[in-house]
Amino acid sequence: MSIQAAIEEKLQALEPSYVAVENESHRHAVPANSETHFKVTVVSEHFQGLMPVKRHQRLYALLADELAGPVHALALHLYTPAEWASRGEGRPDSPDCRGAGA
């Protein structure tokens, strides 16, 4: 199973109404076909009443194995359904890594 698929599977524990896991490794100075940098967007009722740091900690706990091994970076965008709707169902774009062209 790919790392991306493993992440997607583990995120189902949050019963998301929306989930997107994007491999952004190609935007960084890593070998081709790497799975080291991901953007994760999750919309879940499980985030209701949680401050952003607590939401992040919940994801870190779910993805502890990936973070201890192959995953170098996660860009996390974690919303309740109401927050997601108020944003127009959008999340920020990721910048390119300065070392990507090196």
Q: Which properties best describe this structure?
A:
20% strand, 3-stranded mixed sheet, 102 residues, alpha+beta
Tell me about this structure:
The protein has 102 residues and is of the alpha+beta class. It has helices at 3-11, 52-62, 64-68, 81-86, and strands at residues 18-23, 37-43, 73-79. It has a three-stranded mixed β-sheet. The termini are far apart. The mean pLDDT is 88.
Shape assignment: globular
Side by side, the strands of the main sheet go 1-2-3
- Runs in which pLDDT lies below 50 for 5 or more consecutive residues are none
Main sheet attributes: strand count, strand direction, barrel closure: 3 strands, mixed
State the order of secondary-structure elements, H for helix, E for strand: HEEHHEH
Number of helices: 4
Mean pLDDT figure: 88
* Rg from alpha-carbon coordinates: 14 Å
What is the strand tally?
A: 3
Distance between the termini: 30 Å
Structural class: alpha+beta
Could you tell me the strand content as a percent range? 15-25%
Helicity range of the residues? Answer: 25-40%
